[in-house]
Amino acid sequence: MMNLNRTVVTEFLLLGFSTSPERQVLLFVALLAIYLVTVVGNLLIILVILVDPALHTSMYFFLSNLSALEVGYTSVTVPKMLVSLISGDKRISFAGCAMQMCFFLCFGSTESSFLATMAYDRYVAICKPLCYPMIMNKKVCVLLAATSWTIGIPAQLVQTGLVFTLPFCSSKEINHFFCDPAPLLLLACADTSMNETLTYIMVTFFGMVPFALILLSYIRIIATILMMPSAEGKRKTFSTCSSHLIVVALFYGSGILLYLRPRSSGFPDGGKLLSLFYTVLPAMLNPFIYSLRNRDIQTALKRNMTRSQFFLA
């Protein structure tokens, strides 16, 4: 009987949010504003780091990579959602859905890797300051960045391939605003236990392992800071990693809320709202966190704005 329900799927329907047309317009305006702020803010961080020689250090090299990642991460899902909201066309092709899911998973793996790499950079800078220039040299930084960008690609290609080689039933409605593995597996006309097991392995390896490394780094960092004799020295040292800590809390905090929340809820779109928060809000807030709490970025912004005004005058 199961074979009779199988069908060749050429496209899916992304149901998105079950809201009225008026609220869809409000959601479109809000999402468009968030997306523009995210793109402009992160590109501005990249530009400032590129043009200001004072920011050509390992910490800001990793920050520029993180900002580029955030632009890509949000661009995988938000533009398609904006088009669906304004046009009412919720269709996405089979190949388009596979590409969206693959890129989303790869960028998620890359972000957790970069956050762990940035925590290691802070650990070396604070706990081994005399060896910092030698350990975090240009070659090592490029190698760490390249590893962070590519480490998740093979595994996520396999995961995506295993999902999209499943036979799908007659229903092609994905109860989400993008092609997430969990709602896609619900449409399969086959045993998905292997896919679910693989998902848990991926979350552990690309989510929990980097988080554990971040925790270990900050345990050593805090221990080193507490041994410093002066309160001013402690404050200045901790300020160099406070922005990174806030970004980590946003990324992993929203992820924990999304995946460990109770499944039974009286609010049908609650999971999708949390997923939207996890997808777009940390990326939008990152430029504000690093510009408002980082004196070097603030100084570079002022210096380059003054320089621009001088040339325009």
Automatic annotation (TrEMBL):
- Which keywords describe this protein according to UniProt? Cell membrane, G-protein coupled receptor, Membrane, Olfaction, Receptor, Sensory transduction, Transducer, Transmembrane, Transmembrane helix
Its chief place of residence is membrane
Gene Ontology cellular component list = plasma membrane
Question: InterPro entries attached here?
Answer: GPCR_Rhodpsn (IPR000276), GPCR_Rhodpsn_7TM (IPR017452), Olfact_rcpt (IPR000725)
Give compartment(s): Cell membrane
What are the transmembrane regions? 25-51, 98-120, 140-158, 200-223, 244-261, 273-292
Q: Which GO terms describe its molecular function?
A: G protein-coupled receptor activity; olfactory receptor activity
Record membrane topology: Multi-pass membrane protein
The segment(s) forming the G-protein coupled receptors family 1 profile domain are 41-290
Q: Which family does it belong to?
A: Belongs to the G-protein coupled receptor 1 family.
Q: What is this protein called?
A: Olfactory receptor
Which organism was this protein described from? Answer: Terrapene triunguis
| Recorded name of the encoding gene | LOC113408977
